[in-house]
Structure formats: structure tokens, C-alpha cells
Write a structure and sequence with these properties.
alpha+beta; DNA primase, PRIM domain; 4-stranded antiparallel beta sheet; about 45% helix; about 15% strand
């Protein structure tokens, strides 16, 4: 980013701050503040340990200094402006979640697609926080980060003094970490048998049962959440086109088996021999391979599954037939709906795994930024500030506003005025097409004329210079 570009961006950010109503966060005098300034970009130098005692002091600083990025702490301190964290004397902190599109496993390459994806994930997390933890909407705020995701702030007094380890337990819960299928969904172990001389209990293992499913209980919890998923899945799959249904069940079974393979301990040369024999003779049995190589048949199966050489389609077809038969039997369907009983343990476990994956919010490198939640001294973006990496507004949202929020329209603050920029070579694919305010713009290397908001987005991202 050259000097001319920095000056242009700083001027337009200044215009925004001078003409916008900035609302400071709750209890701002007890928060630490941090800023990144245009002069030092593209180097990221955080100037922190700042504190403000009065509203005008904070607003005058932001409007005078014009930061590229403005942050405040999630924590509250006795002395927020002290030079060291120890001297600040931590008193508590909001519970913060930071969801970033870059961390989601489903890779989407358009900016709009990324934002749609992370919004859906944010809605799932809000459901956990309100239904499972009981946080009220009044104590839960949503903020579009201005970049690639959303921040959720929980101001509930119950979380105020939680330490890092306790906050990480919340992360583990919403991510399903350590969730045991056997703990939530236990088979019935005893049945009462009439012997003619009274009833006796006989131990046996029944079909899988969703033992914690209770529609009358308040809130959700993983038991109810997964139970509803299972019932919805079984009802839905029985009405789908047969080919689509078989493919879906095949993928679920394959995924479940991949999670349970133990092929890593097998020497590479043995694994290569198994793969070669299967490729040369596709119809060869696992038993035959095991006998020729002198290994257990289970090891052969694990190697084939790990290398995508196991065909689950026939198994899926058999399971679909059983599901359809149950779906057409009102009594069997009632057993699934009221008691959650499924007499195919492998299929049950596979669907439960899929339910956990689809419902969980994996806080960490896979989905959201787990360190933000556990870090009780973290800085978070100031709502209504501008994001120096996009030029868009950091937008605070209520629950109802979040549902209808369109970031590429509602967070755009700059004008339609056409300006000239020079796209930097080599132009990355994600910057060759810009979708904002319901319009699409094609960008090529060299000079381009774009609406100011699109041009500022590219300059802020380091993909273009002011021409």
C-alpha cells in the first residue's frame, strides 16, 4: 500500500468518523483500547494499553487519529490504561465468539459465498447459546466484523468472572468435543419377562434408543438436538429419489467408517499390497486378501476404507429398504418418534455422527477462533468502526436485524462515485470479480474505474492502489 493510497483511505475514513454517530461499548472506561494506524500499514502494529475516562475523550481520539482498525477489550479492568496486563487488575470479561469464514471447513471462493456460509454458522451458534445455555437475547449481541465473519458478545453476569478453562468448556460443548454416543444414546439392557411366577429382569441388548429425548423438557441439549435430527433424517430419506437416498446413506456410512479405521499401524508395504490386489482384482474378497498376506481381515477392511476402495452402496441399498419399510409402518414410525428406537446400530451410530458434525460449532482452527473465546484479555473490534481490511462498517445487530442482514449491502458506507484504481499484478482470483450492493464488477490487472465502495474494498485488501 503506497503513500497516496494510505492518504486517500485515511481521508475517506476520517469523513466517515466525522459524520457518523459512534456509540461506545458498555462500561467503556473500564476497557482497554487498541488501534492500528494507516501510517504503519501493511505492517500490523497494535497500539494498545489505551484508556478513556470520558465519552468525548474517546470520540475525539478516534476522529482525530483516524485508525484503520479500532478495538476494545472484552475484559473490564480496574486500571485499563496500565502498561502491563498484571497492573491492569482484571475484574471480569464478556463471553466472546469470533466466527471467521476462513476457518470454515466448506471452502467457498467467492466473498459473498463465504459471508453466506459464516452467517449460517453464526445462526447455529446463537441457537446453542439461547436454547442450551439459556442466555437471553437482551444479554446477547451480534456484530458483523466488517470483514469475513461475525462476533457474538454475551454480557450475562453468569459468565462475567469465568476463567479461560471454564470458557473453554463452553467451547467444548458447542463443538461436541468429547461427546459420547453411548452416554447419550444407550441400548436398553433389561427386559421384564413373565415367568408365570412373577416378573424377572433378563439382561439383553436391544436396538439403539434415544434415551434422553424428551419433547416436554425445556431447552435443548445434545440429546434432543440429535434426536430431532435422527427422526427428520429417517422420515426425509424414505421419501427421496432412490438413487439420491442411496448416495446419501452411502456417504454417511463411509464417513462413519472413515472415523473408525485403524490402518495407520500397518506397514506401508502391506497397505500397498492390499491396494494393489484390490485394484487388480476388484471382486476379490477381503478374506482372500487377508489369507494371502497373512494379516487379519479387519486390517484389510480398514486399509480399503482408508483408501476409498470399499464400496458401501450395496449396504446402503439394504439399509434404505429397511428404513422405507419402517416409514410405511405407523407403529414402527411411532416408536422412532416417541422413543427414538432404531434397530440398526451401525446406521444409528453413523447418523448420530452426522448429526453431531452438522450441529456442532467447532471452535478453533476448523470453524471459529477458539482462542478468542478462551482469551479473557482479548481485544475485539469496536462496533460502528470501519474495518481497515475491507472499508466496511463493523455493524452491531439485534436478533431480528441479523436475520435480514446482508453485509455486502448493509455494511457498505462509501459512495457510488466512480474512481480510478490500479489493480496490483498478479491479481488474485478472489479479486477479479467484486459483488457489492447487488452489483457485480469485473476487475483486471492495471487501471480500473469502479464505484468508490468497491475501489476502497480492493485498496483496503491490498489488491489495488489509488490511481
Amino acid at each position: 500500500m503506497n503513500f497516496r493510497t494510505k492518504q486517500f483511505l485515511r481521508k475517506r475514513f476520517s469523513d466517515y468518523y466525522q459524520n457518523s454517530q459512534l456509540i461506545l461499548p458498555h462500561d467503556f472506561p473500564r476497557r482497554e483500547w487498541g488501534f492500528i494506524f494507516f501510517d504503519e500499514l501493511p505492517e500490523v502494529v497494535m497500539r494498545r494499553h489505551k484508556a478513556f475516562s470520558r465519552e468525548n475523550e474517546a470520540l475525539d481520539y478516534i476522529r482525530g487519529m483516524v485508525p484503520a482498525h479500532a478495538y476494545h477489550s472484552a475484559a473490564y479492568y480496574e486500571f485499563p490504561g496500565a502498561a502491563t496486563m498484571k497492573e491492569k487488575k482484571w475484574q471480569g470479561a464478556d463471553l466472546i465468539f469470533d466466527l471467521d469464514a476462513d476457518h470454515l471447513p466448506a471452502k467457498v471462493y467467492s466473498y459473498k459465498g463465504m459471508l453466506d456460509n459464516v452467517k449460517s454458522e453464526t445462526a447455529k451458534l446463537l441457537d446453542f447459546l439461547i436454547e442450551d445455555f439459556g442466555f437471553s437475547e437482551n444479554n446477547t449481541s451480534i456484530v458483523f466484523s466488517g470483514g469475513r465473519g461475525y462476533h457474538i458478545h454475551v454480557h450475562d453476569p453468569k459468565v462475567f468472572t469465568l476463567e479461560s478453562a471454564e470458557r473453554r468448556e463452553i467451547v467444548d460443548y458447542v463443538s461436541g468435543t468429547g461427546l459420547s454416543i453411548d452416554y447419550l444414546f444407550k441400548p436398553e439392557k433389561f427386559v421384564a419377562i413373565d415367568t408365570g411366577r412373577g416378573y424377572m429382569k433378563k439382561e439383553f441388548f436391544s436396538p439403539r434408543k434415544v434415551s434422553s429425548f424428551d419433547e416436554t423438557s425445556e431447552g435443548f441439549g445434545w440429546g434432543k438436538r440429535i434426536s430431532r435430527y435422527i427422526i427428520s433424517f429417517l422420515k426425509g430419506i424414505s421419501t427421496k429419489d432412490e438413487v439420491d437416498a442411496i448416495n446419501e446413506i452411502t456417504e454417511i456410512i463411509k464417513n462413519y467408517n472413515l472415523k473408525n479405521v485403524q490402518s495407520g499401524s500397518m506397514p506401508d508395504e502391506i497397505a500397498e499390497s492390499v491396494i494393489q490386489m484390490k485394484n487388480e482384482t476388484p471382486n476379490i474378497s477381503n478374506k482372500k486378501i487377508a489369507e494371502e498376506l497373512g494379516i487379519y481381515e479387519k486390517k484389510v477392511l480398514d486399509i480399503l476404507i482408508a483408501n476409498d476402495l470399499k464400496d458401501f452402496s450395496l449396504e446402503a441399498k439394504r439399509k434404505l429398504k429397511k428404513i422405507k419399510k419402517k416409514a410405511q409402518n405407523p407403529k414402527a414410525l411411532n416408536m422412532i418418534e416417541t422413543k427414538g428406537i432404531i434397530d440398526d446400530e451401525d446406521l444409528f451410530n453413523a447418523i448420530v455422527l452426522k448429526a453431531i458434525e452438522d450441529n456442532s460449532i467447532n471452535l478453533g482452527s476448523a470453524h471459529t477462533d477458539e482462542p478468542v473465546t478462551a482469551d479473557i484479555k482479548r481485544l475485539i473490534r469496536m462496533p460502528n468502526s470501519l474495518h481497515g481490511g475491507s472499508g466496511m462498517r463493523v455493524v452491531p445487530l439485534s436478533m431480528s436485524e441479523f436475520r435480514d442482514f446482508e453485509p455486502l449491502n448493509d455494511a457498505v458506507v462509501f459512495s457510488e462515485k466512480m474512481i480510478e484504481i490500479e489493480a496490483i499484478s498478479p491479481l488474485k482470483p478472489q479479486f477479479s470479480k467484486i459483488e457489492m450492493k447487488g452489483k457485480s464488477f469485473t476487475v483486471s490487472e492495471g487501471k480500473n474505474t469502479l464505484p468508490e465502495y468497491a475501489a476502497i474494498y480492493l485498496m483496503s485488501r491490498g489488491a489495488a492502489e489509488y490511481a
